[in-house]
C-alpha cells in the first residue's frame, strides 16, 4: 500500500502530479496547457523540449501502458462499471485489474530488455479515476468510444478527477469542503500538500544530507515529549537547519517518526509501570523491531534510532534487533560493492559521550527466532535468551490475518507471556481497529488504546484504488504489556510447541 515513488528508491524522480499526468513528467511544471502523450495518454509534458528529452526513457513504459490498458475485455468492463451497483465495492475489482496489469508488465518487460520499476507500478496503481464511478479514461474509451478525451481534474489540486461535468458537480462539495477523516484538511488541501512534499523531494533530491536529519545534541536531563511536531521543530535546542521548509520538515518526519514513536510509547508504558523500572531511566535498552521491513533498514537505519540516545541522558547502550522475514542483510552501495544495510557513524556528541548502538538482523519470524535461541541455550549451544526491554511493530497489519492461522499469534503470545511492552502502529484507523481486536482476542493487556499518533509521518500518500483517502507512516499507535487474563491458555498450534514438556520452558 505504501509503495509510492516518493517513498522508495525512485523518490527523487517524479512528483505526485507528474504520476497523475497533470504536471510535466520531466520537470513537474504546470503550464496553462500540457501536452499529453498521444499514445499512452497517461503522462504529460510542458513543452516539446521536455517530451523529446524524455522520449528514450518513456518509450518502453509507454508501450507497456498502452498494452495493459487494452487487456480487460469489453464485457468485463461492462460488468464492472455498468452492471455493478452500489453498495457493491468497485475498489476490489480495481485492485485486481491493477495487480493483473502489473504482473503482465513484470513478465513482459524482461523480454524486451526492460525491468519493472516502482514508477511502472505507480503509473498503473495511481491511474486517475473518476471520484464518483471509478472509471478511468481507458474505461470510458472502451465503453463509449475512442473519441472520449480525458478525465476532468480539480483546477486547484489537480489530483481529483471526474469523468463528466455531472460527476464533477456531484463530488465538488465533498472534495473542497468536507474535512478528511481525522484530519484538519480537506481532500483538496491534502492533495496540495502531497504535491508540495513530493516537489520538495524532487527539487532537492533524496539524499541523507537533505532529508535524513535529526538534531545533533544530547539532552542533559530527561524531558517529556512536546505535544506535536510543530513544537518539536520550533524548539531552539533542536537546531533545525536554516534552509528547512515546512514541506521538507514534513518529509523528514517519515524517518523521525520511528524514534519519536518509540519514545512516545515508552512514556505511556512508564506512566503505567507501577513498581517496574522505568524504560526512560535505563542505562542499557534493547529494542526488538518485530516484523521489520526494508523501510526501517533502508531509509531509517541506525542513524535514525540515534535520536533515542540523544533524548535519554542515562542511556549508554542501545541494542536493536531487527526481526522479520522481510529484512535484508546486504545492499549494493554506490560503488557497486555490497555494504551493510545498517550503518551508523556516531555524531560528535555520541562519540564524546561514549554511547553506542549495537544491532543484529534476523530474517525470520520473531517466535521462530525466540524458539531457536531458547533451544540453543538449553543445550549449551548459545547464550541465554534475553527478552527485549521493549518491542515495536511498525504498520504490521497483524489484524488483517484471517482465521486462526496468523503468524502473528504465537509472537503476540510470547511477548504478552513475558511482559514485554509492545508498541503497535498502523497506516489507517480501520487497521488500528483490526489490530486492537486482534490483540484483545489474544487477551493482550492493552495499556493504551489506539489513537492518532502525534508522531506519525506528516508526509501523506494517497490511498490506492479508493475514491478518496490518505495514509501515513505510523498514523495510529497503541500498546500492550502482559495478558489481561492470567488464566488464558493459547489455542494456537505453534508447530510442536504444545508437545513440549513445559510451556514455561518455551516462553522463558
TrEMBL record:
Domain of life, per lineage: Eukaryota
A Pfam family recorded for this sequence: MSS51_C
Record key words, sorted: Metal-binding, Zinc, Zinc-finger
SUPFAM superfamilies named among the record's database cross-references: HIT/MYND zinc finger-like
InterPro entries the record matches: Mss51-like_C (IPR046824), Znf_MYND (IPR002893)
Keyword RNA-binding appears in the UniProt entry: no
Record domain MYND-type: where: 24-62
PROSITE patterns according to UniProt: ZF_MYND_1, ZF_MYND_2
Keyword Transit peptide: no
GO MF annotation list: zinc ion binding
Protein name, UniProt field: MYND-type domain-containing protein
Amino acid at each position: 500500500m505504501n509503495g509510492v515513488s516518493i517513498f522508495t528508491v525512485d523518490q527523487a524522480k517524479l512528483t505526485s502530479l507528474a504520476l497523475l499526468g497533470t504536471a510535466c513528467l520531466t520537470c513537474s511544471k504546470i503550464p496553462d496547457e500540457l501536452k499529453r502523450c498521444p499514445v499512452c495518454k497517461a503522462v504529460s509534458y510542458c513543452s516539446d523540449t521536455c517530451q523529446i528529452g524524455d522520449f528514450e526513457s518513456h518509450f518502453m513504459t509507454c508501450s507497456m501502458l498502452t498494452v495493459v490498458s487494452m487487456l480487460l475485455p469489453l464485457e468485463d468492463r461492462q460488468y464492472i462499471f455498468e452492471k455493478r451497483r452500489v453498495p457493491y465495492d468497485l475498489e476490489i475489482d480495481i485492485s485486481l485489474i491493477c495487480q493483473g496489469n502489473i504482473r503482465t508488465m513484470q513478465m513482459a518487460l524482461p523480454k524486451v530488455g526492460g525491468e519493472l520499476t516502482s514508477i511502472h507500478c505507480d503509473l498503473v496503481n495511481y491511474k486517475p479515476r473518476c471520484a464518483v464511478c471509478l472509471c478511468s479514461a481507458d474505461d470510458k474509451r472502451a465503453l463509449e468510444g475512442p473519441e472520449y478525451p480525458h478525465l476532468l481534474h480539480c483546477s486547484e489540486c489537480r489530483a481529483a478527477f471526474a469523468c463528466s461535468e455531472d460527476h464533477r458537480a456531484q463530488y465538488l462539495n465533498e472534495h473542497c469542503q468536507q474535512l478528511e477523516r481525522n484530519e484538519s484538511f480537506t481532500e483538496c488541501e491534502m492533495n496540495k500538500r502531497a504535491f508540495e512534499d513530493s516537489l520538495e523531494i524532487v527539487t532537492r533530491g533524496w539524499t541523507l544530507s537533505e532529508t535524513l536529519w535529526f538534531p545533533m545534541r544530547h539532552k542533559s536531563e530527561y524531558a517529556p515529549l512536546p505535544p506535536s511536531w510543530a513544537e518539536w521543530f520550533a524548539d531552539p535546542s533542536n537546531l533545525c537547519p536554516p534552509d528547512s521548509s515546512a514541506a521538507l520538515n514534513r518529509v523528514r518526519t517519515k524517518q523521525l517518526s520511528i524514534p519519536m514513536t518509540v519514545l512516545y510509547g515508552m512514556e505511556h508504558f512508564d506512566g503505567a509501570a507501577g513498581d517496574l523500572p522505568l524504560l526512560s531511566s535505563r542505562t542499557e535498552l534493547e529494542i526488538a523491531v518485530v516484523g521489520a521491513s526494508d523501510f526501517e533498514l533502508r531509509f531509517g537505519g541506525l542513524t535514525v534510532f540515534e535520536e533515542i540516545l540523544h533524548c535519554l541522558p542515562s542511556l549508554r547502550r542501545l541494542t536493536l534487533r531487527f526481526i522479520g522475514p522481510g529484512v535484508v542483510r546486504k545492499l549494493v552501495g554506490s560503488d557497486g560493492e555490497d555494504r551493510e544495510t545498517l550503518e551508523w557513524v556516531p555524531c560528535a556528541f555520541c562519540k564524546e559521550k561514549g554511547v553506542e548502538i549495537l544491532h543484529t538482523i534476523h530474517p525470520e519470524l520473531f517466535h521462530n527466532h525466540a524458539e531457536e535461541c531458547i533451544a540453543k541455550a538449553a543445550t549449551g549451544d548459545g547464550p541465554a535468551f534475553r527478552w527485549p526491554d521493549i518491542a515495536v511493530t511498525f504498520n504490521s497489519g497483524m489484524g488483517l490475518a484471517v482465521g486462526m492461522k496468523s503468524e502473528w499469534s504465537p509472537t503476540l503470545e510470547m511477548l504478552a507471556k513475558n511482559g514485554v511492552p509492545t508498541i503497535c502502529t498502523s497506516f489507517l484507523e480501520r487497521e488500528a481497529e483490526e489490530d486492537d481486536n486482534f490483540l484483545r482476542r489474544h487477551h493482550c493487556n492493552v495499556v493504551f488504546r489506539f489513537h492518532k499518533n502525534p508522531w506519525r509521518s506528516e508526509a501523506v500518500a494517497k490511498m490506492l484504488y479508493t475514491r478518496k483517502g490518505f495514509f501515513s507512516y505510523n498514523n495510529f499507535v497503541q500498546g500492550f504489556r502482559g495478558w489481561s487474563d492470567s488464566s488464558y491458555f493459547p489455542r494456537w498450534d505453534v508447530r510442536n510447541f504444545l508437545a513440549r514438556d513445559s510451556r514455561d520452558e518455551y516462553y522463558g
